[in-house]
Amino acid sequence: MRGARIPHAVAGVNLKFDQEGLAPAIVQDASSGEVLMLAWMNREALEQTLATGKATFFSRSRKELWVKGATSGNTQAVKAVRLDCDRDAVLVRVDPAGPACHTGARSCFFEVLQDAPPAPGETLAALEAVLRSRKIDPPKGSYTAKLFADEVLRHKKIGEEAAELITASLRGKKEEIAEEAADLLYHALVLLQSHGLGLADVTAALREREGKRR
To answer: What gap in Å lies between CA 182 and CA 25, rounded to an integer?
Structure first.
């Protein structure tokens, strides 16, 4: 049963909470799109989330507000907040500082009933995180660390991998094309990281072009 509508000035709309004054909040990784957890918000929790930029929820068991990561350090910096079409659920897109689940898992949704390969965004975001860590703390013997340490090699590999992708495309073998494209994407991400850039910067550039090309 839908609860009473409780007015709240967010983007000029009214939010609907249930009879206990709560609404479900789905938390999603803003970079990868991965669903991290489900929690609950009351009006105050939503207001605090919007005001502070820190994911804040309401504990149904303790009957109090709680800020994600306040004790564990696994905070969630809020990047965007959206409502569903019925205005009775909240989507919170965050930049997580650590695991979302109290078990230590990255996402609370780790028990598999039916599975599929990770979404492309999840895979690229995970790779980017690994590359970032290699740049900060380069392990001995790491090829990625070698690329970060050698500017000439970084640029050389981009050219080589691009040429190999073209050759694979001309051959028309799909598996080979995918493999060479993966090599080029990997080296492109290393190049981006070397300049302090990442997938977010590339997707921002793509969004700016939306509607400009047909």
So the answer is: 35
What residues have CB less than 8 Å from 129, skipping those under 6 apart? none
Distance, in Å, from the CA atom of 200 to the CA atom of 206, rounded to the nearest integer, reads 10
- CA 110 to CA 88: how far, in whole Å? 25
- Tell whether pTM > 0.90: no
Per-residue pLDDT tens over the stretch 92-129: 999 999 999 999 999 999 998 988 888 888 899 889 98
Domains of the chain: 5-96 (3.10.20.810), 120-209 (1.10.287.1080)
Biggest CA-to-CA distance, the chain: 63
For residue 54, the 8-state DSSP code is B
- Count the neighbouring beta carbons within 10 Å of the beta carbon of residue 55: 28
